[in-house]
Design brief:
Blueprint lengths: L2 H12 L6 H13 L2 H17 E3 L6 E3 L19 E5 L5 H7 L5 E4 L17 H13 L4 E4 L5 H19 L4 E4 L15 H9 L3
Parallel strand pairs: 3-4, 3-5, 5-6
Antiparallel strand pairs: 1-2
Length: 206
């Protein structure tokens, strides 16, 4: 690996969420110690991942394409509670909720949060798509939208943004908007919450 290849790979790893320069370099050094077969397999899988995964046309989470349908297994599940929709920041937040076995409604991935000092970030989110999905789901029995953002200033700011989008339905008494309650400590991220904490946050939503 040339010096330029090393530095470029480090830069690419730095673009991963939560990864800084030191961790990125550790990843590259780790690859250098791996067997060639493992590195080749990793390279192959990275190259294939966009070909085998699709974005659900309802909740916008990524799922294994398999049969080639437009919707993921959760959105295709007619046994789930049509009255509930939880809005989340990212795909990774779904897994702990599913593991908790507490939530039986549907999901919507907003695609990020809005930092307090960067309101322009709202343009990168799926606000328009959320309004379309909510309108469709109201016709099918949607009663409550749960905001499942991380308990930090950016998450709270994003909650206010979504509440403003859903305001017209709330004002007419068509829709209730709630947020996860006590159970998630301030500063915590939903992705890393344990099942019992998630249960408490869902039961105490307000």
């Amino acid at each position: 690996m040339s010096h330029n290849s090393f530095e470029r790979l480090t830069e690419l790893f730095e673009r991963f969420p939560g990864i800084g320069p030191r961790q990125a370099r550790r990843f590259v050094f780790h690859l250098l110690t791996e067997d060639r077969q493992n590195v080749d397999e990793l390279s192959k899988l990275v190259g294939e991942v966009k070909d085998v995964m699709s974005e659900c046309q309802s909740c916008f989470r990524f799922f294994a394409r398999n049969g080639g349908g437009a919707y993921c297994s959760i959105c295709d599940d007619t046994e789930r509670d049509v009255s509930l929709l939880m809005v989340l920041e990212r795909d990774a937040d779904i897994q702990p909720l599913q593991k908790s076995g507490t939530y039986e409604g549907y999901y919507f991935i907003l695609g990020g949060t809005i930092p307090l000092l960067h309101t322009e970030e709202s343009k990168k989110l799926r606000g328009g798509a959320l309004k379309v999905i909510v309108e469709k789901r109201i016709a099918n029995g949607l009663k409550e939208v749960i905001l499942g953002f991380s308990v930090n200033p950016d998450g709270e700011n994003t909650s206010r943004y979504v509440e403003s989008l859903l305001g017209p339905w709330v004002e007419k008494g068509i829709l209730k908007v709630s947020t996860l309650g006590r159970g998630l400590s301030t500063g915590s991220e939903l992705e890393y919450a344990d099942p019992e904490t998630i249960k408490n946050a869902l039961y105490n939503r307000h």
